[in-house]
Amino acid sequence: VQKLGGQEKGETPCCEDMQDTDLELGLDNSAFYDQFAIAQFGLWAAWLTWLGITVMAFLKVYHNYRQEDLLDTLIHEKELLLGRSSRRGSDLKTGLI
C-alpha cells in the first residue's frame, strides 16, 4: 500500500497533512508581495482618482447651477429696473406720480 501525505492511497488527505507537501510546480513567487503591493497601490490610486473626478464634477454642476441662478436673478432685476424706469417715464408723460 502506497502512502501519500501520511494517508493510504484512495483516502482523501486532510489539509493539515498536505500543508508540508511540495507541489513542485516550478513557480517563482519571490516577487509576489511586491507585485501585490503595486496592484494594491494601483487600485487605491484609481479609486482616489475616480473619487476626485466625481467630486470635481459635482462641484462643476453646483457652480453652473449657482451661475444660472445668478444670471436668472440678474435678468429678473434688469427687467424690474427697466420696467420701473419705463413706468416712470410714462408716469411723467401722463402727469401721474
TrEMBL record:
It comes from the Eukaryota. It is a multi-pass membrane protein. Its main location: membrane. InterPro entries: TMEM179, TMEM179-179B. The chain crosses the membrane at residues 37-59. It is found in: Membrane. Keywords: Membrane, Transmembrane, Transmembrane helix. Belongs to the TMEM179 family. PANTHER family: TRANSMEMBRANE PROTEIN 179 (PTHR31872:SF5). This is Transmembrane protein 179.
